[in-house]
Specification:
Blueprint (H helix, E strand, L loop, with lengths): L15 H4 L3 E2 L1 E6 L5 E6 L2 E5 L4 E6 L11 H9 L1 E6 L5 H6 L10 H4 L4 E3 L6 E3 L4 E12 L6 E12 L4 E2 L2 E2 L7 E3 L5 E3 L12
Antiparallel strand pairs: 1-13, 2-3, 2-6, 4-5, 5-10, 6-9, 7-8, 9-10, 11-12, 13-14
Length: 201
């Protein structure tokens, strides 16, 4: 099968998300200028550089009260900071609950039953007990082709690691089993690892 995206795929569901998978989930917490906290999961998320450490996430839809974007992007544009909370398998239901389209100013932490803690290097909340949290300062927001597509880039200024996830000096993802997004309504969790040594190592 071959198709051009502009012509449509002819399938019952769009296969694009299933092709580019698994995708890590950035559970993005932000705060607006009035101090209201927001939390939302984004599966177009990844690390993009080591030194200095940098991450990105993309938002691909909009709310009627947010001028062609969503609360996360609007808050970050206003305050210049955000936090990426890493999603563990045990938090899958809370993550899903936080994806609800709540009204502007409603707190997804409370709606999902999550406790929050203050960040250290930025004025933003983070999820208490998350396996890891990356405190970030905005570097740029890029408007992408298409409707309501925005990529947000940030430099990591502080990193929280949960103590039980550190084993033998390594951050062990099997300790919390990160959640990943597949296509459609499908998700996966990381339970097993294997190692490959690069030829030039």
């Amino acid at each position: 099968m071959f198709y051009r995206p502009e012509d449509g795929h002819g399938l019952p569901h769009n296969p694009f998300g299933a092709i580019v998978s698994p995708r890590p989930i950035g559970w993005i917490s932000s705060r607006d200028g009035d101090g209201s906290d927001n939390l939302a999961p984004y599966s177009f998320f990844n690390a993009v550089a080591y030194a200095p450490p940098q991450v990105m996430f993309a938002s691909t839809s909009a709310k009627p009260d947010r001028d062609n974007t969503k609360d996360s992007v609007a808050n970050i544009a206003e305050t210049g900071v955000f936090c990426v909370n890493i999603v563990e398998y045990a938090a899958r239901d809370a993550m899903n609950a936080s994806s609800a389209a709540l009204a502007r100013g409603e707190d997804e932490f409370a709606a999902a039953g999550l406790d929050k803690r203050p960040c250290t290097t930025i004025d933003c909340a983070r999820i208490a007990g998350a396996p890891a949290a990356l405190e970030c300062r905005l570097t740029r927001i890029v408007t992408l082709p298409g409707r309501s597509n925005h990529a947000v880039f940030g430099q990591v200024t502080g990193i929280h690691l949960r103590d039980d996830c550190l084993r033998d000096g390594r951050f062990d993802v099997t300790a919390f089993q990160p959640l990943a997004r597949l296509g459609y309504r499908d998700y996966a969790r990381v339970t097993d690892l294997f190692e490959l040594i690069r030829p030039d190592d």
